[in-house]
Inverse folding.
């Protein structure tokens, strides 16, 4: 069964805060993982890919724990522009098809 | 990267009618994917459109309701047939290489 489960939202945090989202997946054979960002009324866009234990890009860090089958996304020094829905995405057969989590909504408040 | 042009961006349709959504990609791709995103929900894969063969549908989606065309490696259409209000949703096409790229989405409202 293809399942990707995410933290329920919404997360409301002040500017400058650090926030973390978790995502669990059911297919232990999955090799690559993605975090996508979706702004309101827009299509999803890739935020980060995770192929090994983790990945870091500026204020964003993604970590993978294969033993426990979860992926996390950490956002440091939150900005107002970080407000969006963050989707955890796991391919279930090579690179396709992609299975999307329901998303975690983040609101960064001034 | 890939740039996908999807249209229409939105439409309001009468129940019982059909709507065809088009996606044009700026490069040749083997597979194109069609997703549905219902209000407040994540993306659900409808089908995979393969050039030169019939589309592969996911559980819960059938060809009579969502016929798909894939006439070449850069273009695909999805038709939402005999629409009901439950079909009101955002429909997205997508392609993949190292990451998934999406069209801008079609926001469909059935009244």
């Amino acid at each position: 069964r293809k399942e990707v489960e995410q933290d329920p939202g919404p997360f409301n945090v002040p500017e400058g805060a650090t926030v973390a989202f978790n995502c669990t997946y059911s297919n232990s054979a999955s090799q690559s993982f993605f975090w996508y960002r979706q702004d309101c009324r827009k299509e999803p866009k890739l935020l980060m890919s995770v192929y090994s234990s983790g990945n870091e890009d500026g204020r964003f860090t993604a970590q993978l724990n294969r033993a426990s089958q979860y992926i996390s996304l950490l956002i440091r020094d939150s900005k107002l522009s970080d407000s969006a829905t963050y989707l955890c995405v796991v391919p279930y057969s090579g690179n396709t098809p992609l299975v999307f989590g329901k998303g975690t909504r983040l609101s960064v408040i001034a | 990267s890939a740039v996908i042009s999807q249209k229409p961006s939105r439409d309001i349709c009468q129940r019982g009618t059909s709507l065809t959504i088009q996606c044009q990609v700026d490069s040749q791709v083997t597979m194109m994917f069609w997703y549905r995103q219902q209000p407040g929900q994540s993306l659900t894969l409808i089908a995979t459109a393969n050039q030169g063969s019939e589309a592969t549908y996911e559980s819960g989606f059938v060809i009579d309701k969502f016929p798909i065309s894939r006439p070449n490696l850069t273009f695909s259409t999805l038709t939402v047939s005999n629409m009901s209000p439950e079909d009101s949703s955002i429909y997205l096409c997508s392609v993949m290489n190292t990451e998934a790229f999406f069209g801008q989405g079609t926001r469909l409202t059935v009244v």
The mean pLDDT of chain A is 90. Residues 15 and 110 of chain A are 6 Å apart (CA to CA).
